[in-house]
Design brief:
The complex is a heterodimer of chains A (547) and B (131). Chain A has 547 residues and is mostly helical. Chain A has helices spanning 19-25, 29-59, 67-101, 110-129, 157-186, 199-214, 216-231, 240-252, 254-258, 261-275, 282-296, 312-321, 323-337, 346-368, 371-377, 381-411, 417-443, 460-489, 528-544, and strands at 2-6, 9-13. Chain A has one domain: Cytochrome C Oxidase, Chain A, CATH 1.20.210.10. Helix content of chain A is 66%, strand content 2%. In chain A, strand 1 (2-6) and strand 2 (9-13) form a beta hairpin. The N and C termini of chain A lie far apart (55 Å). Helices cover 75% and strands 2% of the residues of chain B. The longest helix of chain B has 34 residues, at 97-130. Chain B is flat and about 55 Å long. The chains are: A mainly alpha (547), B mainly alpha (131). Chains A and B meet through strand 2, helix 1, helix 4, helix 5 and helix 6 of A and helix 1, helix 2, strand 1, helix 3 and helix 4 of B. Strand 2 of chain A pairs parallel with strand 1 (70-72) of chain B.
Chain lengths: 547, 131
């Protein structure tokens, strides 16, 4: 038994069990987060393979898979990426780094965090088990709209497994969000006031608020869908299907910001560190995040403009208003870069990629926030391009910025910079080749979710280009995997603080001990390590100054 | 005293303002002037957030400045077992009573394990405080 005291937080550790059990059932937030990240990355690879098959189908102008198989592919691709990869990996990052950034010895509710990991595992396996059933996996898209997903139009076990899988994974994410939120709000070290929390921690607070208060709507919607499939009469009638959509999108749009806020937080940390500057406009950034998170709870029905059953004007107003907090956040990022001492590491390049490419996704979102324009573009490839620019070209780049930044802290090992830059280059080329032509195809009228299109449409060459782009993205991910393997085999020790970081996670060893810190530095701002460096520089300058 | 509740209270109020703004758009039918579910979902989230913030505020006001030592188990096989059982029970809703019963058995094992861990935690905390 060991007792560890950090500030006013104390923990008692129970005797350890055998190593395999420690790995599978550890309540250490760092182990849980690494496990969740590994599971999510495995699902990312699986979802990516589905995307490559879909792209092969579209490049070949039909013939690779049937329409029914194609429906399963896009359903499972979207479901995997949203429910099993981006959201879990975003929350896993919070689970690992929020306790470290606020100086806590452990996460609040460590058992709940562990439960979240296993809910993700069982949820993902249930969802993918659909491929083993006679009718195949779910094929009613990642939103599973009724009546497309009812027992008449989607018979078989695929949709059942999809419903259970999504419920399990989502329940796990809600547990994680609760743990991270309570850690940030109630487990802070002495001196770590709310306004001294770093930007990443604040971005996780905003994220977790969305998860806790929006995600229950998805579980309610899926419970109703399950009841509709088995008993009927639940979503029948004129507005039953609309009400399902209302519930689904009450989850379905906030989840987009759950897939954005953590990554802009990561990018904020990376930019501040690699520009050697204190984060610009910290307080404004926090207020913008909270306002942004609130607004993002009010825009869900812009996905339903064309139905004529929602208050279009209200949702157009709130959707357009998002540009104000988003603009403040961008201003803060650019203000941090401005006149900074830039170090073009792989992490910083990915952060720049996020800033530029997410802008494309964000600006095209303004188009879709306008009902008259949305009437023309809804269900077209323009929408597909828009959300891939936000989620892949934006958030995935933010994620890799975070991975290259924090990998040394998690493993104690530096990733290879050259391979990292190759990864960035390939991913930037592949992403823009794969997704930019979709804007053109969408504007020309190519609709989503078609396995084939008329050869007279003139869309084949752009589709072939997109498929080449998807292949280049796959190569970039291969470069990343090679980088991780090479770096872990031929280890280059990172030390505690290889980047001259500013926040508390860099004040402990790499990887951190079980209870995170042996001692904490004084916390006087949101960048306590930068304060220490500036103090020592002032001291040195004072000693050099003539008497 | 920590004032963590203020984040939830402020955010809940902001959601409340945005819910009230819906009333200004009365073009769609419904008792609240908008499609009822729109107001209910957003208003419900606002109310739940406010309530959580007030509860947190009250908890923070009651707790002292110094926290008691927290006992954290290094691992919890019982938690993983309980979740496995829960997943099987849920899947059983689609695949039959047999799976629900297996899941219930596994869940019972997990719950028993949690009770055992809770007892061990209490014992170790007592020892630590005595030391």
């Amino acid at each position: 038994m060991a007792v560890c005291k950090v500030g006013e937080l104390s923990t008692v550790t129970l005797p350890a069990r055998a190593a395999p059990l420690r790995t599978l059932a550890s309540t250490d937030h760092k182990r849980v987060a690494v496990g969740a990240g590994a599971v999510a990355f495995a699902f990312f690879i699986a979802g990516g393979v589905l995307a490559l098959v879909m792209r092969s189908q579209l490049a070949a102008d039909g013939g690779v898979v049937s329409q029914d198989t194609y429906n399963q592919l896009f359903t499972m691709h979207g479901s995997t990426m949203v429910y099993l990869f981006v959201v879990p990996v975003a929350l896993a990052a919070g689970l690992y780094f929020v306790p470290l950034q606020v100086g806590a010895a452990a996460v609040a509710g460590p058992r709940m965090a562990l439960a979240g990991l296993w809910l993700l595992v069982f949820g993902g396996l249930a969802m993918w088990a659909g491929f083993l059933t006679s009718g195949g996996a779910a094929a009613a898209s990642w939103w599973g709209f009724d009546p497309l997903s009812d027992a008449i139009h989607s018979p078989g076990s695929g949709v059942e497994l999809w419903i259970f899988g999504v419920v399990l994974a989502t329940a796990g994410q809600m547990l994680w969000a609760g743990c991270v939120l309570v850690t940030a709000l109630r487990c802070r070290a002495p001196g770590m006031t709310l306004m001294r929390m770093p930007v990443f921690t604040w971005s996780m607070v905003a994220t977790c608020l969305l998860v806790v208060f929006a995600f229950p709507a998805l579980i309610v919607a899926l419970a109703l869908l399950w009841a509709q499939r088995h008993f009927g009469g639940v979503l029948d009638g004129g507005l039953g299907a609309v009400d399902y959509q209302q519930l689904f999108w009450f989850y379905g749009h906030p989840v987009v910001y759950v897939m954005f806020f953590p990554f802009i937080g990561m990018v904020g940390e990376v930019v501040a560190t690699f520009c050697g500057r204190r984060f610009f406009g910290h307080s404004a950034f926090i207020l913008a995040l909270l306002a942004f998170a609130g607004l993002s709870m009010t825009v869900w029905a812009h996905h339903m403009f064309t139905m004529g059953q929602v208050t279009n004007k209200y949702f157009a107003l709130t959707s357009t208003a998002l540009i104000v907090p988003a603009g403040i956040e961008y201003l803060d990022l650019l203000g941090t870069i401005w006149r900074g001492r830039l170090r073009f590491s792989a992490a910083f390049l990915f952060a720049l990629g996020f800033i530029v490419q997410f802008l494309v996704g964000g600006l095209t979102g303004i188009v879709l926030a306008s009902p008259p324009l949305d009437y023309g573009l809804n269900m077209s490839y323009f929408v597909v391009a828009h959300f891939h620019y936000t989620i892949f070209a934006g958030s995935a780049f933010g994620l890799f910025a975070g991975v290259y930044y924090w990998f040394p802290k998690v493993t104690g090992v530096l990733l290879r910079e050259r391979l990292g830059k190759l990864h960035f280059l390939l991913m930037a080329i592949g992403t823009n080749l794969a997704f930019f032509p979709m804007f053109v195809l969408g504007a020309e009228g190519m609709t989503r979710r078609i396995a084939d299109y008329p050869s007279s449409s003139g869309w084949q060459s752009l589709n072939e280009l997109e498929t080449v782009g998807a292949g280049v993205i796959a190569l970039s991910i291969l470069a990343f995997v090679v980088n991780v393997v090479v770096s872990l085999r031929a280890r280059q020790a990172a030390g505690d603080d290889p980047w001259q970081g500013q926040t508390l996670e860099w004040a402990t060893s790499s990887p951190p001990p079980r209870h995170n810190f042996h001692a904490l530095p004084p916390i006087r701002s949101f960048a306590p390590l930068l304060d220490l460096r500036e103090d020592s520089e002032d001291l040195l300058a004072g000693e050099r100054a003539p008497a | 005293m920590r004032r963590a509740g203020i984040v939830l209270i402020a955010w809940g109020l902001w959601l409340g303002v945005l819910t009230a703004l819906q009333a200004a758009f009365r073009s769609i039918r419904g008792p609240l002037g908008v499609h009822w579910i729109e107001a209910a979902m957003l208003g419900g989230a606002a109310g739940a957030c406010l309530l959580a913030g007030l509860v947190l505020w009250a908890l923070d006001a009651r707790s002292g400045a110094v926290e008691r030592p927290r006992a954290v188990a290094t691992d919890s096989v019982a938690t993983a077992t309980l979740i496995a059982g829960f997943a099987l029970v849920l899947l059983g809703a689609g695949f039959g009573l047999w799976l629900i019963l297996i899941g219930a058995g596994v869940s019972a094992l997990g719950l028993g394990g949690l009770v055992r861990e809770a007892l061990a935690r209490r014992r170790h905390r007592g020892e630590a405080e005595a030391a």
